[in-house]
Amino acid sequence: MPRLVILANRVPNPNERGTPRAGGLAVALEDVLTPGTVWLGWSGERAEATSTTPKIIEHAGITYAAIDLGEADYRAFYLGFSNGSLWPLLHLMPGLTTYNRGDYAGYRAVNRAFAEVLAALLAPDDFVWIHDYQMLTAAAELRAMGIQNRIGFFLHIPFAPPEILKILPPAKELLAALLACDVIGFQTETDRAEFLACIRAMLGIAPTTDGIVTLDGHTTQTVVTPIGIDAENFSRLAGRAVRRAETKRMMESLAGRALMIGVDRLDYTKGLPARFEAFSRFLATYPQHRRKLSFLQIAAPSRNEVGHYQDLRNELDHRTGAINGAYSDFDWTPLRYMTRTVSRTAIAGLYHMARIGLVTPLRDGMNLVAKEYVAAQSAADPGVLILSSFAGAAHALTEALVVNPFDVDAVAEAIHQALTMPDDERIARHAALAAKVQASTAAAYCTSFMSFLAPGAEGF
Ligand code: ADQ
Fold first, then answer.
1. Which ligand 1 atom minimizes the distance to the CA of 393?
2. Quick one: which of 312, 277, 268 has its CA closest to 295?
3. What Å distances lie between residue 411 and 9, 278, 280, 394, 424, CA to CA?
4. What global pTM score does this model have?
5. What is the mean pLDDT of residues 179-206?
6. Pocket around ligand 1: residues whose beta carbon is below 6 Å from it?
7. Hey, whose CA ends up nearest to atom 12 of ligand 1?
8. In a mutational test of the pocket of ligand 1, which residue from 190, 227, 264, 272 has the highest number of ligand atoms less than 8 Å from its CB?
9. Has residue 79 got a pLDDT over 70?
10. pLDDT tens-digit profile of 200-224?
């Protein structure tokens, strides 16, 4: 019986399920996490040297295999090339992109180490599903070891056009390495088109009209399989959360005011400084709404060791102080800003009571917060989603108030529009959005990707 073998930067610890950090990829992949599946990744631990013998945890028939990263590899692979070079560049932020050869060498070495561990776990008919920008060269390493299995890769973040990708010295090598896969999946048609444009411009290969690329006799199919959430479950969670003590406490603290919510990792791609600026502009331009709206921004600390992330944190602390200093009243704080991770139930409850969901990344592969916000609303009295046109989610969620996050006046206007939207429009927009979120789920994502990776195979 062929198995699915997953390779991702992080491997979930099955013993930690239900903690605030739970979620992410493990929730998205729930439908393919059937008995027999193997998941290999980084343990999150650092050691003197990168281990080549994984720590194995068997849970509910699934094998979780985790390796520790050596300190130098962690710096080069994780902080350096993955998050200092690839993350900003693929989010079209060349100004924040750094590059050095040593980091890239470390990145390749860690991809090789993962490939070696994976090859040892692999049976001949297994399917391999590799995830995201930290693992761009793992498939090529597997092929170099003689592995012939079907290999799929899914990119969770956007892809860049050729003129941007070219900034990265090993760009061609990375593109060629990806073509070792049989299937490459993207969040949107735009990402796939950019990838194919890079293949054409930088490798001189002409893809077929349906996105198939051939290099040295090996063909790679490019596909679009947008990720989603378990909408039904999330709606139920929001329904339950409303009865929890912390949700009630929050409700009481609002004293009848409307709530606007933002939930993000503390990351410069999420556009938080511009979002705070837009809120400030809103308070200045629409004084009639002052004291009637509270904005709660929850930001989970992320990649603290990367310099740009520390700068971002300082900037947001400063802006929060400036907004609250200028507009607070004895009994009203316009902006509540929390830098911590909150449980999924609490988040679902907060979404549910929020009149506005403010999701304004400068660039985002998909953005699951937008989908969670929609799923958490009540159909009879839903809130309004304000969504950046540069989030992958905006490709489908066109009934949101779609904004350009760089245009703070436009975002301020959208907040005003959301607060004054007639009930029937609010309900109609939400109904259309909810139908899409309920159709393009996490399960649909898995089924769709697996139909390309393992066509005709049963049990996936
Ligand atoms: P992320 O950049 O992490 O994911 P996103 O899709 O929004 O972005 O997912 C974040 C998840 O973390 C959501 O489920 C959210 O509820 C949760 N979360 C955020 N802040 C939190 C907090 N303070 N406390 C608790 N939970 C919090 C990457 C890409 C995205 C893509 C996903 C999946 O950048 O574009 O949608 O992968 O492919």
1. 36
2. 277
3. 35, 6, 11, 15, 22
4. 0.97
5. 98
6. 20, 23, 156-157, 227, 263-265, 298-300, 341-342, 347, 364-369, 372
7. 24
8. 264
9. yes
10. 999 999 999 999 999 999 999 999 9
Q: How far is CA 398 from CA 4, 6, 412, 438, in A?
A: 35, 33, 19, 15
Rounded distance, CA 186 to CA 189, Å?
7
What is the structure's pLDDT at 242? 87
User: Ligand 1 pocket test: which of 246, 352, 358, 369 has the largest number of ligand atoms within 8 Å of its C-beta?
Assistant: 369
Same fold, 4-228+442-453 and 231-439: yes
CATH class in words for 4-228+442-453: alpha beta
**One-character DSSP codes across 244-296:** SHHHHHHHHHHTT-EEEEEEEES-GGG-HHHHHHHHHHHHHH-GGGTTTEEEE
Residue nearest (by alpha carbon) to ligand 1 atom 9: 368
Q: Whose CA is nearest to atom 38 of ligand 1?
A: 156
Using the mean position of ligand 1's atoms as its centre, give its distance from the Cα of residue 270 in Å.
Answer: 10
**144 Cα to the center of ligand 1, angstroms:** 34
pLDDT per position as a tens digit, 325-347: 999 999 999 999 999 989 999 99
What pLDDT, on the 0 to 100 scale, is given for residue 411? 98
Banded pLDDT at 101 (limits 50, 70, 90): very high
Atom of ligand 1 nearest to the CA of 229: 14
What confidence score (pLDDT) does residue 205 get? 98
Q: Which fold has domain 231-439?
A: Rossmann fold (3.40.50)
CA of 367 to the centre of ligand 1 (A): 6
The residue with greater pLDDT, 453 or 26, is 453
- What distance in angstroms lies between residue 268's CA and the mean position of ligand 1's atoms? 13
Rounded Cα–Cα distance for residues 253 and 339 (Å): 19
pLDDT for res 134: 98
* Atom of ligand 1 lying closest to residue 25 CA: 33
What is the reported pLDDT for 19?
Answer: 46
Phi, psi of 420 (to 5 degrees): -110, 10
Tens digits of per-residue pLDDT, 402-423?
999 999 999 999 999 999 999 9
List the domain boundaries for the chain: 4-228+442-453, 231-439
Which pLDDT does position 20 carry in this prediction? 43
Output DSSP code: residue 167.
T
